[in-house]
Amino acid sequence: MSLTPTRRMHLLISLLVALFLVGLLWRGIDLPATHPALAGLILTLFAANALWLSAAAVTALFGMFAIRREHTIQQAATTNDRCAILWLVCGEPAEPLARRIRALLHDLHTTDQAQDCTIYVLSDTQGKDLIEAERAALAPLAEHIHWRNRESTTDRKPGNLSDWFDRHGRDYETMLVLDADSGFSAARLQSMRARMASQPELGLIQAAIRLRPGSSRLAEMQRLSGRLCGPVFAHGLACLSGDAGNYWGHNALLRVAAFARVARLPVLSGHPPLGGPILSHDFIEAALIRAAGWHVQIDPVALGSFEDSPMSVAAHLQRDRRWAQGNLQHIRLIGRAGLHPASRLHLLAGIHSYLSAPIWLALVVLMGSGAVHANVEAVWALLGALGLLLVPKLAGLATMRRRLNRPAGKRLLWRALGAELWLTTLFAPINMIRRTGFVLALLAGRDSGWKPSGQFETRAGGGHAEQLTGFAVFAAVITPQMLIGTNTAVALSGAIVLPVVLPLLAAPWLIRWLDRPVKDDAIARYYDASTRRFLVVGGSGRALALHRPLWAPGINTPESAAAHANDLIASTATKALGRPPARVCDLGCGVGGSLFHLARLWPQAELSGITISAKQVILAREHAAHLRLSERCRFVHSDFTLPTSISRADLIFAIESHVHVDSAARFLDAALNHLTPGGVLIVVDDMLDREENGLTETERQLVTVFRRGWRLGHVSPRSTLLAEATALGFEMLAERDLTPLLRLDRLRDRILRVVAPLADRMGLTRYPFFANMVGGNALTQSYRAGIMQYGLVALRAPEDALVHDRGATAVRDAA
């Protein structure tokens, strides 16, 4: 590896920073009172961790500057190579996999790659029931994909790939390797294929990966860390690695001829855990491909490349245990002849990521207990190490901030940084203790075995082992100081050990807290509990509507009235676009009634719906199957303010859902990130007739009851919605007051005027049935009093919406 100016600068800065911190620690050790061997040991251990912390911090800074210099180069997709898309499966849920495959198949057609690309699902799933479930889920795609299940899972994932290579490898030039939970866009594949075609020496391109939103606090913690630090790390690593990059086992495009050199990995001599089959095979495959003369590159942009993260602490730790064994096996391979120096550094980084945990624990115990006599100056070295941990986070924050113009977005980023620091600080001691245990178990000869991600545990670990370890560490540190030390020494020991010990003592509760859903979502619970009742009481019949009926002239049935909002959206969209839309997305889709209506009007359109209610997704998919619209209508369980794998649409609409977001601005920001540039957004919803400061106290109270009963995030005037839209670059196309089409004096409305206030005074709104009753009555009274109006607003997105995606989406995702 030649020392280019960039690499030379990185090495020099990293060494200087590490030496400075080691010097601080050396000054902080009372050398006459400390055994020389212990002093040497503590300095050596600290130097090892300080060097890698400084290297990571400098890498992040290099990545930050690389992003600032980055400019998009459009790659012409002139290649017509045959590409195999390989999804490797081993017991993971099959339904999500089928949806991802279906979405990619559609995108391959739209990018004119369908003729060149073939999808293979390479299954190592075991167990009759699981295999049959997988077969059934993929059956509708049988004409478009190849699925095979190995009877024997010899050599795990490498064996699975080798089996495909032996059977089909000669028929393809390139192969995209994906895990079961991977998502990949056809546009991203197209650009990577073009890049590989333009560089004949290029053997592997590893795409950066973005984590999808997760349901647990742990998953969101990992995702938030990835969003803050991931881009700067990826760009820095790509910059420094050059043509000797790394491979993470999935979301990567490989040249088949290059993969031929590593299709059969060596088996390490001896028995597991440090012998036998190589568990972390991907690093080794990248190293061997580079050693064979092929270039290996990291593409640092994560756009269009996704994966899931473990949802529970138990699943995270189980995967980490396997990775620990795999990375420590690399100790036996790092000296292999012929490897590129950069490949050795990648291997060393993986090894050190696990050895650093026992090193930190040893430093805490040795320094805190007084075995190594230290004074207050030693704290500065430890604070310096903590400061290095902050550098990647601050670099990521700075990168996001420079893409934002709105002060509210910048404040949101600071809150996101605070949340990430809080969560990772709490979890770090647990991770340190577990990783230390992994290393010790491996050194003792305990083999973890190998479990695929589809068999990860989902229930939380108990945390009692961590709690006992916390007591032991505290006793080992504080007891000697209390017996022989001064008050200053006790205080210093406490400062060193308490940030580590307190999370360990709270581990049983902390782990359960991390495993819980991100929030107890009142909106999701509300719709989970109420949807079936809404369908029955609303009387919309086959319209499957959860929104209010509109009684326009000539409409005389509840079903037609319920469907009229869909007709208004269809006519408005067709007029605005000048054609039927090709892709449609419903933000807050309910059970899919509006999408099914539009699917019949636009038989060529692809339609998607997003809802926060799991029960609504189940019902929507059932109705889609009954109506034979499953191929065209896709439903996703998610918060629509978060990114999904759904492709951008040229028509987005939201019926009575935009008010569930905490502000009109945040809703518009979310909608803009689902729209194609120049696409159309249509909102049909409740809006204030005038500014809230113009309402009387009685009127304001009525709106408050409405918001509380229906679990709304905001209720804004139409003027506020339009002003926020203009600020984001939207063009106003149409607006219409639909309030005259509502019936506000039905028999049930008159009954609710009497019953709803009683239910509210009795505190029954904590139950969805009564909450809906109270909120609905307050809304009806607001209509009648002229406080509220039911309106339609149509907006056109700016042509530069993709620029917005790179900035505002980062803020929203970080939150």
Describe the structure.
- With 815 residues, the protein is α/β, with parallel strands linked by helices.
- Among the domains are: 79-311 and 331-343, Alpha-Beta Complex (Spore Coat Polysaccharide Biosynthesis Protein SpsA, Chain A), CATH 3.90.550.10; 522-688 and 715-742 and 788-814, 3-Layer(aba) Sandwich (Rossmann fold), CATH 3.40.50.
- 55% of the residues lie in helices and 12% in strands.
- The chain contains 26 helices and 17 strands.
- A 7-stranded mixed sheet has the order 3-2-1-4-8-6-9, sandwiched between helices. A 7-stranded mixed sheet has the order 13-12-11-14-15-17-16. Strands 5-10-7 form a 3-stranded mixed sheet.
- Residues 456-460 and 801-815 have low confidence and may be disordered.
Stretches where pLDDT is under 50 for at least 5 consecutive residues are: 456-460, 801-815
Strand content is 5-15%
Oligomer: single chain
Distance between the termini: 40 Å
SS-based class: alpha/beta
Q: What spatial order of strands do you see in the largest sheet?
A: 3-2-1-4-8-6-9
Number of strands: 17
Number of helices: 26
**What percent of the residues sit in helical stretches (DSSP H or I)?**
40-55%
Summarize this, please?
With 815 residues, the chain is an alpha/beta fold. 55% of the residues lie in helices and 12% in strands.
Ordered list of secondary-structure elements with their pairings:
Layout: H1 5-28, H2 36-69, E1 83-89, H3 94-110, E2 117-123, H4 128-138, E3 145-149, H5 156-168, E4 174-179, E5 183-184, H6 186-198, E6 202-207, E7 210-211, H7 217-241, E8 252-255, H8 256-259, H9 281-291, E9 295-299, E10 305-307, H10 313-329, H11 341-369, H12 377-401, H13 407-443, H14 464-484, H15 487-505, H16 507-515, H17 522-538, H18 558-577, E11 583-587, H19 593-601, E12 606-611, H20 614-626, E13 633-637, E14 649-655, H21 664-672, E15 675-688, H22 697-709, H23 718-727, E16 731-737, H24 747-761, H25 768-784, E17 788-796, H26 801-814
Parallel strand pairs: 1-2, 1-4, 2-3, 6-9, 7-10, 11-12, 11-14, 12-13, 14-15
Antiparallel strand pairs: 4-8, 5-10, 6-8, 15-17, 16-17
Helix pairs in contact: 1-2, 1-12, 2-7, 2-11, 2-12, 3-4, 7-12, 7-13, 9-11, 10-11, 10-13, 11-13, 11-14, 11-15, 12-13, 13-15, 13-26, 14-15, 18-19, 21-26, 22-25, 24-25
